[in-house]
Design goal:
This protein is of the alpha+beta class. 45% of the residues lie in helices and 18% in strands. It is rod-shaped, with a radius of gyration of 30 Å.
Length: 192
């Protein structure tokens, strides 16, 4: 421990400050990562409300605890490297600041990219219009009852209720095209 004390006392106050920032915020960053991995994240949805209330589901605030920690972690290590390289303190602080801002900007780009990947998974039967499916259960003629079709919709094979305006029943195994919606959840189909 006396070697550490001797080393610490031998460096300038400026370098001590850079070491304190780099190590301190790196420790915060590590703890923050661990808490995030195990559900103890302080910027979580529960602290901010329901995910649906966030618009895109992933919220990004420029000034948040995560960003402050990321900024100072990057600032500390880059400034320390610049100082060790013999750069002037003003240039050291400037380059550290640029690196910290770049880190926050990179996080902003990543969060916005993740927001674009959001998919609610909610079935929108209107998306079936114009698509082709196969009759699973016979569809009675003249909207005289509901049958079922299987159709690839929103990347998943679905079994949906269907009716037809045709004069004859559409039998099982026949290909049909969705022409409209009978109501919110029932498709109108015609043979292909």
């Amino acid at each position: 421990m006396s070697n550490f004390s001797a080393w610490w006392n031998s460096i300038s106050t400026f370098e001590q400050t850079l070491w304190a920032i780099a190590l301190g915020f790196s420790l915060f960053f590590l703890l923050q990562t661990i808490f995030t991995a195990f559900g103890g994240d302080t910027d979580s949805e529960s602290a901010m409300g329901d995910a649906e209330d966030l618009g895109d589901g992933i919220d990004f605030q420029f000034l948040s605890l995560k960003n402050v920690v990321a900024f100072f972690t990057m600032f500390g290590w880059v400034a320390l490297a610049c100082h060790k390289a013999g750069l002037h303190p003003a240039l050291t602080i400037s380059l550290g600041t640029i690196a910290g801002v770049a880190m926050v900007a990179l996080m902003m780009v990543l969060f916005r990219s993740m927001a674009k990947l959001k998919h609610s998974g909610t079935l929108k039967t209107a998306n079936a219009i114009g698509h082709t499916g196969e009759v699973y259960l016979t569809i009675p003629a003249g909207k005289g009852g509901q049958g079922k079709i299987t159709i690839l919709l929103q990347g998943t094979m679905r079994e949906l209720s269907a009716v037809t305006d045709e004069a004859q029943d559409i039998p099982t195994g026949k290909l049909v095209k969705v022409t409209g919606l009978f109501n919110e959840h029932v498709l109108i189909v015609a043979p292909v």
